[in-house]
Amino acid sequence: RLLGGRSAHRDAVIATPSSLARSCVAPKLRRAPLPAASRMSGKCYDVYAEGSSSGEEDCEEPDAAGFRKCLGDVAVARAFCHCGRSLRRVAKLPSHALLLTCSTSHSCVRCGDVILPGELHFRCKECQEVKVCRACGPGVYIEHTFDFSDPVTQEKEVMEVPDRVLHYRKARQNLRKTTRAVVFCGAQDYEAALQLADDIVANTRALVTEVVEAAEDRRDRDWAPAGLLERLLGTRSLSQTVDMLRLLMSSAARVFAQCPTLQVAKAPCKVYGDIHGQLRDLLLLFGNFGFPGSLECPCVIFNGDFVDRGSHQLEVLCVLFALKIVMPRTVLLNRGNHEDPQMNIRYGFYRALGTALGDVAALEIFNLISNAFALMPLATMIEDKIFVVHGGIGSGTWSLDALRRVARPLSHADLQQDHNQWLWNLLWSDPIEDDEKTGATQVFGVHSSTRGKMAVKFGWNVTQAFCARNGLDLVIRSHQSKRRGLGFDVMHNEALVRVFSARDYEGHENDSAILSVSHTGEGHDDAEGILVVRPQVIGSLVRS
After folding, report:
1. Active-site residue among 121, 338, 390, 492?
2. Which is more confident, 63 or 436?
């Protein structure tokens, strides 16, 4: 009747594509099935989820770095799960307030904040473990500052919203007293973080030029420019330095939270091994073999162990986190076994923070960094042919699909759970060299490791079987410095390469190496061409 009953109009409606017809209809609230416990006790819980107005088939077209809707800026990526599907609003509401006390809380996979029973949050239809809090999701964010106009002085200023106008449930109030969530305060803070990261990258470029043009080379521990951290951050006081670190570390955590557990990279790219706080070696590698984002190094993978033991640990982390914020799709960071608070306390990173910032500020920044470490991806795939991981493949009986489904954040305690032993070994396991001077059976299969009761060593046959089962040609790993080594080793019938980038590490008199991965280029389409891995090495100062 609205269309006047005219057949032409009816035909026009019928001819409208279903996707357009759906986009013109407001999303409906659907009532989801009740959990078993609520069906037994009557109408105990109501579960509502708001449907998305866009069909999920729109997300199914893959791109070089995953689903296309995940490749936009941070604001767009917030609306989607790492699998590419839209996040949906969910609220599990008990009909009686007393039931809230016995309901289960959840953790946000992006910031680690607690999602209390009954609170509206976001979930993915397919990835059941993905739960995103309101602050990290695609909803409306209320800024905690306001514009105030003084009628007496006629001055205007921006003020913090006082606690007396912020009303929270008692459970949330108790959490606010004991935890400090990482909050990305909208577009303004995002722009501030991006500007800070841009400044750090520019200051790093200047340092690269200085180091490369220096009259003489020197070891990282013998290189101590005055005010290096302040120069990188562009700060002039300790309080300003702490503020900038707070912004940088919390922003990096947000970026890591939006990355998949198994990242994807395109060739050509470079793969860096352990850095361990040796900033001068990192700058030399940038100067000799290409700064990230340049034509020589369009994509780069940093394969874990960024801190502990070295002389410039916090500075290295600032550089890498800034690069990640500025170039999130082409600068990829894998977690190593030293991206762990227990290791950082034992091997010097926490102590270095205390020396640089003072005990009170060091604890706050350390917690922010630990949060970022827990959210870091665990591995990267290059062109679906090369698997890059910090430690190794452990028993090698798991699949890449299983790794893609792993939810983060992952704390030290999470990784030490028995069912996560395979994840622990991604960070801790070691390959057995084919020509190791042991019995023939000791270079074959899986064996216990001196690194702990959960860690293992794996032989050449484990690597070969893992590659065959997952359609891979090569595994790249780091994690080990070899005394008087070249910084790289090839083993397991050329199916595994080790790379280590910290020069003269712990008195080992070793070279510093990275790996350059590129296509042959000639006579091949890039999508089908042969990948070539070429080591690039800076020699040891001690040995020379």
Report:
1. 338
2. 436
